Please model this.
Amino acid sequence: MKWLGVLGLVALSECLVRIPLTKVKSIRENLRENDTLRDYLEKYPFNPARFLSKYHQHRELALEPMRNYLDMAYVGIITIGTPPQEFRVILDTGSADLWVPSTYCNSMPCGGHHIFKPQLSSTFRPSGRHMNIAYGSGQISGHVGYDTVRIGGLVDENQALGLSRKMHGNFMDFSVFDGILGLGYPGLAIRGTTPVFDNLWEKGLLSENVFAVYLSSRKERGSVLMLGGVDPSYYAGELNWVPVSQPLYWQVAMDSITLNGTVIACKGGCQAIIDTGTSMLTGPPTSVADINHKLRALYSYGGEYRVHCDTIDTLPNIAFVINGISYPVPASAYTRKSRAGTCYTNFESFHSKSPETNTWILGDVFLRLYFSVFDRANNMIGHVFSPGQSIMAREEGTMIGLAWDLEVIDSFL
Model:
């Protein structure tokens, strides 16, 4: 069965579409360099439960409470409209909507970004519907429209997209990206709309109902999003398949988090969201504080922890155990150094006033080490298995595949 799966992936690599990704400076880095990070974190704490009550009262609100803009760092190029208008977007597994700033936007943060001008597109179609998207760190309101979206040579006609009118918070003042293209499940999307990936699949533009993400820390091989297949030359070893526990986010059951073989968090199991839209390892405040204490890191502000730069080489690996397999993350990956020379850990917590959740978000820190395949072939859409998914035929449910990117791990260790 495993060999059939490998052969299937090789076949898929000939049909896949590759979208180059570029690592950009995150909002957090820009805020820090402008000496405004502390004020921002105090004013806009990351609170994943912040809009829960609003969501239950207003069903038109698209809720993506786990999304935090601060640490989005990889962008891809898409175009919208006819003739095409270009945008740099975060390709984000932690959300499901496509939105960009528009000429309707009357908020200051929209300035300095590419603005979609629907009046210049012959294929734009308004819907007359409003949109409201609530994130863990803010909210966006505007209109829903339909137009042609081009991504990696694929032409997605009549795609729903959000045109921002108002942005609550000043996060876009410090962002390099223009908007977001979500790769999460339809249940996260604006009600009555279909996400880009689902549209591409339903229109027959993808050979397989799968995408993969390779995030590189090396200059010689760039980061890439693969749509409709997997290129096995980007990883070594066998993929280890894990069922998605809740097909909303790309969420899996995690066994534990260990340090030197001892469980230090996620005791008895927890949930983990595999998320291209954040650079961090985010978890419950108590667990994050305990891990940072074990690393001898000192609390700074806004959920950040400082660590002595000269001790990083002595810090141990921290392993995330998923489906019985340990995925070690070395200290050189779970720490970072600012331009000012201060070192921080990449473990951050949800806001302390949030309800204690047993969920972790594994972002780019994890994904740069482990090549990840996101397989929608056996989800609720109900598409038929292809030979590429024969390795997964033993289990029901959507699957995520993780494989060690051995070259990247060697560069860290």
Summary: The two ends are 33 Å apart (CA to CA).
